[in-house]
Specification:
The complex is a heterodimer.
Chain A (H helix, E strand, L loop, with lengths): L1 H18 L10 E6 L14 H7 L7 E3 L5 E3 L2 E8 L2 E6 L13 H11 L7 H4 L2 E8 L2 E6 L18 H6 L26 E7 L3 E6 L13 E6 L3 H9 L5 E2 L7 H6 L3 E16 L20 H10 L2 H8 L4 E3 L23 H10 L7 E7 L6 H14 L3 E7 L1 H8 L6 E6 L6 H9 L19 H12 L3 H18 L2 E14 L2 E2 L14 E2 L1
Parallel strand pairs in A: 1-10, 1-11, 14-15
Antiparallel strand pairs in A: 2-3, 4-5, 5-7, 6-7, 8-9, 9-10, 11-17, 12-16, 12-17, 13-17, 18-19
Helix pairs in contact in A: 8-10, 13-14, 14-15
Chain B lengths: L1 H26 L5 H5 L6 H10 L6 H13 L13 H36 L4 H15 L2 H15 L12 E3 L2 E3 L4 H34 L2 H8 L4 H38 L5 H10 L3 H29 L5 H7 L3
Antiparallel strand pairs in B: 1-2
Helix pairs in contact in B: 1-12, 5-6, 5-8, 5-10, 6-8, 7-8, 8-10, 10-11, 10-12, 10-13, 11-12
Classes of the chains: A alpha+beta, B mainly alpha.
Chain lengths: 530, 329
């Protein structure tokens, strides 16, 4: 069979060659692909956005990088060791050259640290645990952290190294800053060490990449040219794939997956994403402004929170709204990122009768009313999920007034902690539970920034204490047990209601061979065109 | 005459200020740009500092005065999302939008006028009925639907035309044009049809009703009595007399074609100003949004001014040769 396919492909290829004298073997290795929006900038420190950073990962590199299964691999650092709990030593790769030919050295690493800390940078959190970086020699750097941090490098696959000399020459030593009123050279030019060079860029039209001949790693791809085009309209992006104008595109709208699969020569690659979609409940207000219950906040009662949890039919959401493209979750983190114990966690079963009983026990036999906030253009089917939740809660007597808004308005409201009940998604940038615990679950502390995305104000001092221990525990087995304990405490309190991990959907031609990473990043150096 | 123009200019400036003001008041309700400018992990303090530095905490009137002050000097600042000068972003995109708008306007005239004349002359003909049904579709279907239908027929099923983009463009000075390459011309066809469809049907229906009106007048009857050929009567007398309102409408419609291009540009990923504006709304990129609104208001004001001045010149009786000259616009 394989032989037949091979010869058939060969035949088609030969026929194509004969029919169109212009096409050559080299052209056949051009990859054209589309995404829903364009790159905001080429500056790798300007905006912490998944797509932008994922794309720039083809051009720039960090000390470490992520492999097909998100495992940490050495990149610009060949290896590293923990000298003592707050001192890491990185041995840099020798013979690496930036795209302009400049050699890569320790100075560039230290420079990139300072640049990521500069005012316009959106990557301060990546390096903020670092106290200082010391150059030992040209290819050795010591990183001294403010406190022991066993997961230091797990956030560094997206902290990219820039060339000190190049940035100084072009006045780009700080990240692009809107306040300055002046354009930064690095916004439209790149000089990375990565596998591809940007050879042409027209905003909103195309960005052309070509392989970097002197890349330090052995290329696994067979591309000679890559043309990226943003296509913002869903229907047009689908049409471009079906008509063969692009070889690959994402995201695929859920309703078009079947159509692309049915079409000869194209298919959709579906996989679970890392982002967890969940519901949060306000546990700080003494009274919900929207509610008919005066003088107390029903959401402060764990029985009410559990009643809400058990009133939600997650399988119905998966089947009816997500069309099968979601993985119901009992955890606030993707099971992929907590493989050791994730399977031990089970959702509270869907049980409206139990839910009603809990409400009656809590003193709300006739339910109550409250308001809910949700975005309508941020996550896959976000508004529909919120609507479904509202109607499921209505069945047990909780009347929800849903306000679904575009993300710009939604985030303005909820990030000001002005919400009673809300839908949010979270992907830990370090791919580690500490990030989830510290940002989402710990008690809110405006001074340190701890719990700043704990928008409902859930608080459990035991979890706070565990989070501190998890940060500095270097024994992985012990650490995982502590993480497990923290999640168990959270589930017992029903501090949050995790819903699901949504799915990734990438559309591609059948002759394109690629790796779909769960963080929704498309790495060009895994692509082969047959 | 000069007094008239000066008065109109003063009114235009006033209109521009009002547009800017309304736009500015709206911006208070579009969401917080700061949350779109940073990743989710950025701390509240950093967000607040950024908001303060951008002057977003000032009262709207202060922000407005500052904006007008800068705009008068042609300074629109840096885009929040792209961190590039707004004026430069618009310069890059203006050719794409203007080219598309003019081709769409031309398309609607070249097809719309003959169709209007035909349906006016052969009121109950079979072809006329088809044209009229067609025009009903053109008027009632929303733009994006026409665009998507065209894409599915001509790009996906037939594979004749590209579904997105502008094709290869040639740069002449600061102006990029797709009119000089095959792929550029192919890419222009569907967006121009989509954008011009509404105007086409409008012009066709306008010409038809005007023709019906004019054909009933005495001088047409008299011309017939003189034994002139049908051709001379229909095109030399009747059509000429219908063109005056068409010129007015066309002039005004060019403004709305430019403004309507937002939807067409989004459907076809046409790299023009409308696409930029729509993405700016998603990201609450206030510098781009305000500059766009000002620019579109400016186009409308200028076109209106030209139409007004044309009126003044030809008033009270529009001479036939003036109608001819304006017909090219």
């Amino acid at each position: 069979m394989r032989k037949f396919v091979l010869s058939a492909t060969l035949f088609v290829a030969v026929a194509a060659l004969c029919l169109s004298p212009l096409s050559s073997a080299a052209q056949a290795k051009t990859l054209k692909w589309a995404f829903q929006s364009d790159l905001m900038s080429l500056d790798p420190h300007s905006l912490n956005e998944t797509f932008l950073i994922g794309f720039l990962g083809n051009v720039y590199e960090g000390l470490v990088r992520r492999g097909p299964n998100l495992e940490i691999e050495p990149a610009l650092a060949e290896r590293w060791e923990i000298k003592d709990p707050t001192r890491w030593r990185f041995y840099l790769r020798k013979g690496v050259k930036f795209h302009n030919g400049n050699p890569f050295t320790a100075d560039d690493v230290i420079f990139s640290f300072h640049r990521a800390m500069s005012e316009g940078s959106d990557f301060k959190t990546r390096v903020s645990t670092v106290k200082e970086m010391k150059k030992i020699d040209d290819y050795t750097v010591d990183v001294i952290t403010k406190a022991p941090n066993p997961i230091l490098i797990s956030e560094w696959s997206s902290w990219f190294i820039m060339d000190k000399e190049w940035c100084e020459k072009h006045g780009a030593t700080e990240s692009a800053n809107v306040k300055s009123g002046k354009e930064n050279y690095a916004t439209r030019h790149e000089n990375g060490t990565g596998a591809f060079i940007v050879t042409e860029r027209q905003k909103d039209v195309k960005t052309v990449l070509e392989p970097y001949k002197d890349w330090w790693d052995k290329p696994k791809h067979n591309l000679t040219r890559v043309i990226f085009t943003p296509i913002s309209s869903d229907a047009t992006r689908v049409a471009a794939l079906l008509s063969g104008e692009v070889d690959m595109m994402y995201p695929v709208p859920v309703q078009d997956i079947k159509r692309i699969d049915r079409h000869a020569g194209t298919s959709v690659l579906v996989g679970p994403e890392l982002r967890t979609i969940f519901l949060g409940m306000n546990q700080t207000y003494d009274e919900l402004p929207c509610s008919n219950i005066k003088g107390k906040n029903p959401l402060k009662d764990v029985r009410v929170r559990k009643a809400i949890y058990q009133a939600i039919d997650i399988q119905a959401i998966k089947k009816k709204i997500m069309r099968g493209l979601s993985e119901p979750s009992a955890l606030m983190i993707s099971p992929k990122l907590f493989p050791s114990y994730a399977k031990d966690f089970k959702r509270y079963p869907y049980d409206p009768a139990a839910s009603k009983k809990l409400l009656a026990e809590a003193g709300y036999p006739n339910g109550f009313t409250m308001c809910m906030d949700a975005p309508n253009n941020r996550y896959v089917n976000d508004e529909q999920i919120a609507q479904a939740v509202a109607s499921m809660l209505a069945k047990v007597g909780i009347k929800v007034n849903l306000k679904a808004q575009p993300k710009a308005q939604y985030f303005k409201k909820v990030l000001a902690y002005d919400t009673e009940f809300y839908l949010l998604g979270w992907t830990p940038s370090s791919f580690d539970s500490w990030n989830v615990l510290y940002n989402l679950i710990d008690t809110r502390d405006p001074k340190t920034g701890r719990g700043k995305f704990n928008l409902g104000g859930y608080s459990n001092p035991k979890i706070d204490a565990l989070t501190d221990k998890i940060l500095s525990e270097t024994d992985i087995a012990k650490r995982n047990l502590m993480i497990k304990e923290a999640y168990e405490l959270l589930n017992k309190d029903v501090g949050y209601i995790p819903l699901h991990q949504q799915s990734l959907a990438w559309g591609k031609k059948d002759n394109v061979d690629l790796v779909q990473r769960a963080d929704n990043v498309f790495m060009l150096y895994f692509v082969n065109i047959k | 005459m000069p007094a008239f123009i000066i008065r109109r200019l003063a009114q235009s400036v006033f209109v521009m200020l009002v547009v800017a003001m309304v736009a500015f008041l709206m911006f208070n309700y579009v969401g917080d740009p700061v949350h779109q400018m940073v990743g989710i992990e950025t701390s509240m303090q950093e967000r607040e500092a950024l908001r303060e530095a951008l002057g977003l905490n000032d009262p709207p009137l202060v922000q407005f005065a500052r904006f007008v002050g800068h705009a008068v000097q042609g300074k629109f600042g840096l885009s929040y999302q792209y961190k590039r000068p707004v004026a430069e972003l618009f310069e890059e995109r203006l050719p794409a939008t203007l080219e598309l708008s003019l081709v769409a306007a031309l398309f609607s005239l070249v097809i719309g006028i003959p169709m209007g004349v035909y349906t006016g002359l052969h009121r109950s003909g079979f072809l006329s009925r088809i044209f009229m049904t067609f025009s009903l579709i053109g008027i009632s279907l929303p733009t994006f639907l026409i665009g998507i239908l065209l894409i599915f027929v001509f790009a996906v099923i037939l594979g004749w035309l590209p579904s997105y983009g502008r094709g290869e463009v040639v740069a002449i000075g600061g102006w990029t044009t797709g009119l000089l390459t095959i792929s550029g011309l192919k890419a222009l066809i569907m967006p121009a049809i989509t954008l011009g469809m509404f105007q086409l049907t409008l012009i066709m229906r306008l010409i038809r009703s005007e023709m019906l009106e004019v054909l009933r007048t005495d001088y047409i009857k008299f011309a017939r009595a003189r034994g002139l050929t049908d051709r001379a009567i229909n095109f030399g007398h009747a059509l000429k007399n219908t063109l005056v309102p068409v010129i007015t409408i066309t002039g005004l419609q060019i403004g709305s074609i430019i403004a309507f291009a937002i939807i067409t540009e989004t459907v076809f990923q046409w790299p023009g100003m409308g696409l930029l504006f729509l993405q700016a709304i998603h990201n609450v990129d206030i510098p781009i949004m305000s500059a766009y609104l000002i620019l579109v208001a400016f186009f409308f004001v200028v076109i209106n001014l030209i139409v007004d001045i044309l009126y003044y010149v030809v008033d009270p009786r529009l001479r036939v040769d003036m109608g001819k000259a304006g017909g090219h616009g």
